[in-house]
Design brief:
Elements: E1 8-13, H1 21-29, E2 38-43, H2 45-52, H3 58-80, E3 85-87, H4 92-97, E4 124-126, H5 134-143, H6 148-151, H7 171-190, E5 199-213, E6 216-229, E7 237-238, H8 243-256, E8 260-266
Parallel strand pairs: 1-2, 3-4, 6-8
Antiparallel strand pairs: 5-6, 6-7
Helix pairs in contact: 2-3, 7-8
């Protein structure tokens, strides 16, 4: 409200979002939504897929995604006209894990911090949430009157499914993890656990294993399920989800998602693991 028409919101759909998420974002913030925003959706899926082709190393993937984000923003800024500032949703854990928070080492470069290219064609990058943890950001959102449905959405990294797919990213792998993750989130919500677990998602491992479906041998991917409880997302413990819920999730994934014959549950805390797989 304070910024008014000085702000243009550029939503970059990089093809690495959760199932149907691009359309959901546009529905809320686009011209048909309740907010009067200058909203631009850029469908850059193929552009990101081309850049990520053949890339397996996590840090390299993050930096490619970070640079491509900036290049898309720069291109859109030129179309708009005189744009001096780029506003990002960087939060404090992004800064710490990118090795920019005092004594901390680089754990993983976040696309909006350590993953930024050396040259950025804006006068200044503004990061109003840079010193806040995720739980504090949610408090700010509630104070500003943002609907709870949006405030308490599951955390999602900027590189998206690019870092929930171990190894090379392909459109086929994206489809697998989108479908598996949608099933997982649906069953967690049905069980009434969606507000009691800090973060939960499905990831696609780079491992294939032998299975049997019907009378046929299969050699397909293993999907890993992750769920953690945490206050500040700097440390976390694996959530103890009831076996019957995990069983329903696993059964649905192997029966409904093509090219998956095994489902694993990650019970590692942070540390030693990070919440995301890459």
């Amino acid at each position: 409200k304070a910024v008014g028409d000085q702000l243009t919101c550029v939503f970059v759909d990089h093809g690495l979002l959760r199932k149907n998420e691009g359309d959901e974002v546009e529905e809320v913030f686009g011209p048909k939504g309740p907010y009067q925003l200058n909203f631009i959706r850029v469908n850059a899926q193929q552009r990101f897929y081309d850049k990520l082709k053949g890339v397996e190393e996590p840090e390299k993937k993050r930096k490619i995604i970070g640079e491509e984000f900036i290049r898309v923003f720069e291109e859109e800024a030129k179309k708009i006209g005189a744009v001096d500032f780029l506003v990002q949703g960087t939060i404090y854990p992004d800064v710490v894990e990118s090795g920019l928070g005092g004594e901390s080492a680089v754990i993983k470069s976040h696309h909006n911090v350590g993953g930024l290219p050396d040259y950025v064609d804006f006068k200044e990058i503004i990061e109003p949430l840079r010193d806040l943890f995720k739980d504090e950001v949610r408090k700010v959102g509630l104070e500003l009157g943002i609907p709870e449905k949006l405030v308490f959405r599951q955390p999602f990294p900027g590189p998206g499914l690019g870092i929930r797919i171990i190894g090379e990213v392909t459109p086929e792998k994206v489809q697998i993890v989108q479908d598996a993750d949608a099933i997982y989130r649906e069953e967690i919500a049905k069980a009434g656990l969606d507000r009691s677990i800090g973060q939960y998602f499905a990831a696609l491992t780079n491992m294939r294993s032998v299975g049997v479906m019907g009378d046929e041998r299969t050699y397909d991917y293993a999907v890993a399920l992750r769920a953690v409880n945490t206050i500040d997302f700097m440390t976390a413990e694996a959530a103890q989800i009831p076996w019957e819920v995990l069983g329903r999730v696993a059964n649905r994934i192997v029966n409904e998602v093509k090219h998956v014959n095994r489902v694993l549950y990650d019970c590692t805390g942070k540390p030693p693991a990070t919440i995301e797989f890459e």
